[in-house]
Amino acid sequence: MTTEREPGPLMTVQEPTEAQRKPAIESGADAFGGDRSPIRTYLNQRGSGRLADNSFAAVVLASACSIFVIVLFILFILIVRSHLSLVQFGWHFFTHRAWDPVSGNFGALPFIYGTLATSLLALLIAVPLALGVAIFLTELCPRALRAPVSFLTELLAAIPSVVYGLWGIFVLVPLMRDVVGPFLTKTLGWTGLFAGPNFGVGLLTASIILSIMILPIISSLTRDIMLAVPNSQREAVLALGATRWEMVRIGVLRNARIGIVGAVMLGLGRALGETMAVTMVIGNSPAISKSLFAPGYTLASVIANEFSEATGSLYLSALIEIGLALFLVTIVVNTIARLMVWAVTRGSPARVG
Amino acid sequence: MNTQSLNSQQGNFQPKPTRLNIARRTAANYFISGLSILATLVVLAPLAAVLFYLIYKGASSLNLAFFTQVPAPVGETGGGMANSIIGSGVILLVASLMGIPIGIAAGVYLAEYGRGTMLGNAVRFTADVLNGVPSIVMGIAVYSLVVVEQKHFSALAGGIALAIMMVPTVTRTTEEMLATVPHAVREAALGLGVPKWRTVLSVSLRTASPGIITGCMLAFARVAGETAPLLFTAFGNQFWSFRLNEPIAALPLQIYVYAISPYDEWHRLAWAGSLVLIILIMVSVTLVRIYANRGVLKGGS
Q1: ipTM
Q2: What does the domain layout of chain B look like in residue ranges?
Q3: Calpha distance A174→A168 (Å, rounded)
Q4: Is B247 on the interface with A (CB under 8 A)?
Q5: Hey, CA dihedral for B115, B116, B121, B122, is it positive or negative?
Q6: What's the pTM value of the predicted model, to 2 decimals?
Q7: Alpha-carbon gap, residue B290 to B285, rounded angstroms
Q8: Distance between CA atoms of B107 and B124, rounded to whole angstroms?
Q9: CA B71, CA B240: separation in Å to the nearest integer?
Q10: Comparing A36 with B265, which gets the higher pLDDT?
Q11: Which of A30, A287, B84, B190 would bridge with B251, disulfide CB 3.0–4.6 Å?
Q12: Where does B64-293 sit in CATH, by number?
């Protein structure tokens, strides 16, 4: 299989045919006294000449390069459009607390805080659950249940963001306000994390919605990574008399840890940029508060809420600068994550989900 | 003599397993197994809850008017989302027409030309990174490119935003599916003197076509529910619109507007719209899954 995947055999087959064809053309030209052999003419009529081949390669190459162009273009246009705010505020934009469109004073710190708080809290909820699901699916699950359960967890990823938001507004928010919120205040109120009035909307609700949305990504990637760990590792640990959990811990998780960290970072990338569901349940108030019940704002949701009603070019360019920051941060996070996942699953065959 | 030394060695190597130790390890094993089963149930609970509420709240609002009428003004009952369903269809058609050919061509480059080259790896990596860029950023970028130039919101801008989101998914699936086509098939075609471009089109792509169609449908289902990139591009519309250079309604956009509105009648329509959207997406994803699992390509490589 490995030899088939390499381009080697293909090249060696192709080159002799090229080499054979050339003398054939020469002799054909001699024999028929014309410039071209009938075979060559026929092939050219069918569009099988060098020109067609090269132009096809060029079209395909151009399409591939268009992906670069798209990324560079997004970067370019975001920088151009946020120029005004970049020049006016500089680096202070990211450390400044005020967000006052009326007096034209903009700082992104509340949004950065909201984004980081919700994303990290979402990871805190989602990662243990996702690991549990992945362990269940790869090591414990009966074979007959494996496909349906993994299909159902991936179905979670197919539900659109806006539907999660709708469900969050009408189901999760009342639940948080009337049941979960008071319970948390009673039991964990002394930490100060669950103080203040509880409206149901806020950082905690947004984090729960986010954790549901990033779970399928982390769990399906972790499952793939755990499946990529060779069985010989499992057998070796089992042969030493380990229980199944010890086998998973020593033989699988320890081997897959870089990839799992990568999967978690991919989930983080998704959580940072998630817009609609968060916008609908976070409460949309540019404030920094310690309480998880307090309404907040994220980078993505401020764009979604205020972009279409932004008056004045400074306001608009400040919002676009937030978009630029989001773009750069997710690219960095995704790049690191991809490299980590790639380092583990490199050797295993490709899978389509 | 010999057995004695062996016994003493064994004593050094392996402490006699105490009953307590075994009990602890077994208990940990069962505990973790229980936790992972519990985690799976906890994860499946929101799925069940979302689907239950969608059917419970949405199904009662689905009627003929929902599929045939435009939204009613505030205060009036009735009305539907017909223009949003059609609008979503128009935007998705535009997006597919632009995104799928570019995606497939880029995938062909990765699998057939760029395998192992520096440029190929860079394109593959960029596609993966582009896949993770937040959809709202696509919205701003397309707004700055198309809407600002045109000076008005348009269906075309929405289509471009969604097309950009489709490209990386289609590219990576096409590449992975082409990689499963055995080299012997390509070599057979090339050995008959078929030029490379025709080999790619009629042999490689045709062999891998079920998988590629699967990938395209997955990309389609993924962008069908996207709201964020449409907020500042397609913008939404309360009336019928089929023109590409006018603001157009879209189902996810309309659901968002209705969900955050204060009117019960609109909330009801939002649930119904979500149910329709989710049925469309789930049907396509499930079909894809059944089709892909049938093992059309299992013989490859």
Answers
A1: 0.86
A2: 16-61, 64-293
A3: 9
A4: no
A5: negative
A6: 0.84
A7: 9
A8: 9
A9: 10
A10: B265
A11: B84
A12: 1.10.3720.10
